[in-house]
Amino acid sequence: MTRLPFQLELRPPFLIVRFDAEQRILGWSLTKPGFAMARDVVWLEVRDADLGPHVDPVDFMRAKLSAQGLDDAAAFMTAREIARHHVAQSRIGRAVVTCVTTVGLTNGERVGERRQSHDCVAGTINTLVHISHALSPGAFVESVSIATQARTAAIMDTNKLRDTLAITGTGTDCIIVAAPEVGPPETCAGLHTELGEAIGAAVYDATYAGAAAWSAELKQKRATVKRELPSSSH
């Protein structure tokens, strides 16, 4: 992995990615959905108790950000421990793509088969994809598509690690693609391009690592609970 194109700071309950200069972003974060500009991308770790039925999650998020001087950040919200984030980088030709993600799968869904009820706490996959050079609007959209494919492929490839129905993601996944505005923009990011390959590799590797770690932790927790259950007497 080459030098990261940003500073990465763990400041609980925040994980903060800070660029040297503002980046053009596209995604569907709580605070900056769609096309926007941002220097900081932030994950906020929350617990179920933080978000009761009468709490507006956007207002809650903005208040937390403001208290830390991060009012202008693009922000994710996650129940995953932010210390358990994963970073991967891919260089193909001149394209360097860096992915930071947190992966929790308790809120798992299969595309086209929405569950009607959720019996477990929220979990989500929050993904930042940074691309080393400028993108046209169309290439931004295509990059989000490639990142989504890579995330889904990684989750499907780790389904075998879990004793649950196969899922393709969670109901609250979020992706942000970021790129600088300096220089001529890349106009294509399809699977057949160097950029598309680099996006896919970085997102796949980070997501697979996160999903595998989450699955291993879940199995360990279940094994611990099973050992602690009182033995039945006959």
From TrEMBL:
Recall the GO molecular function terms of this protein's record: hydrolase activity
Q: Does the keyword Hydrolase apply?
A: yes
Which controlled-vocabulary keywords does the entry list?
Hydrolase
Its domain of life reads Bacteria
Cross-referenced Pfam families: CbiZ (PF01955)
Q: Is RNA-binding given among the entry's keywords?
A: no
Family annotation (InterPro entries)? AdoCbi_amidolase (IPR002808), CbiZ (IPR052209)
Q: What is this protein called?
A: Adenosylcobinamide amidohydrolase
